[in-house]
Amino acid sequence: MSEKDVIKETRPRMEGAVEDLRKKLGAVRTGRAAVSLLDPVVVDYYGTPTPLNQMASIHVPEPQTITVQPWDQTQLKAIENAIRSADLGLNPSNDGKLVRVPIPALTEERRRQLAKQVHELAEEHRTAVRNVRRDANERLKKLLKDKTISEDAERDGLEEVQKLTNSYIAKIDELAKHKEQEIMSV
Fold first, then answer.
1. Which domain-ending residue is among 55, 79, 102?
2. SS3 of the chain
3. Do both 169 and 113 map to the same domain?
4. Which one of 109, 121, 126, 163 has the fewest beta carbons within 10 angstroms of its own beta carbon?
5. Residues 27-55: pLDDT tens digits?
6. Contact of 45 with 91, CB cutoff 8 Å
7. Is 54 in the same domain as 82?
8. Could you give the angle at which helices 151-184 and 3-26 cross, rounded to 10 degrees?
9. pTM
10. 157 plus 175 within the same structural domain
């Protein structure tokens, strides 16, 4: 194993942290309706916890409303209850055919809470990237100790890992900044 192998394994792990942040940020409310808002909703479908998007079609017909049309009409009540109990601050209603989820406007206080939540998510993922960096650095130092690579190769590897870390942390900061602006804009 060389320093290049360590770097090859480090990049996808850091990319994974950024992708995970993207997914989690997609589920944070911004005051506009988005299909991704209902991603964390899991419905008890005949005793099996099932993600909502696997048992219904979800649409955004207008900016302040999400509609959920289940493929199995008998599940309307279960879907409505699952959305209500998902702790998203949403109050769905069903009209016998589909579930309508009105998206209430965000208060200033709620916007601040959401911005804080985005900040915490970003920090969590920055830490994940730093942990990946630490693992890679330890592996490089172990390779040097085992005399598998030279000191120059180790130094180059450490520099490359640091460059990767900086670029992925910058991506995380950019995503968080963009989401915070989205939340705070009225």
1. 102
2. CCHHHHHHHHHHHHHHHHHHHHHHHHCCCCCCCCHHHHCCCEEEECCEEEEHHHCEEEEEEECCEEEEEECCHHHHHHHHHHHHHCCCCCCCEECCCCEEEECCCCCHHHHHHHHHHHHHHHHHHHHHHHHHHHHHHHHHHHHHHCCCCCHHHHHHHHHHHHHHHHHHHHHHHHHHHHHHHHHHCC
3. yes
4. 109
5. 777 777 788 888 888 998 888 899 988 99
6. no
7. yes
8. 10
9. 0.73
10. yes
Residues 96 and 140 in one domain: no
Q: CATH no. for residue 160?
A: 1.10.132.20
> Which residue range(s) make up the domain with 7?
3-26+107-184
136 with 178, same domain: the answer is yes
Q: Which residue has tokens 């394994």?
A: 9
Taking only the tens place, the pLDDT of each residue in 59-107 is: 999 888 999 999 988 889 999 999 888 877 788 998 888 999 998 887 8
Which of 77, 102, 127 is the C-terminal boundary of a domain?
A: 102
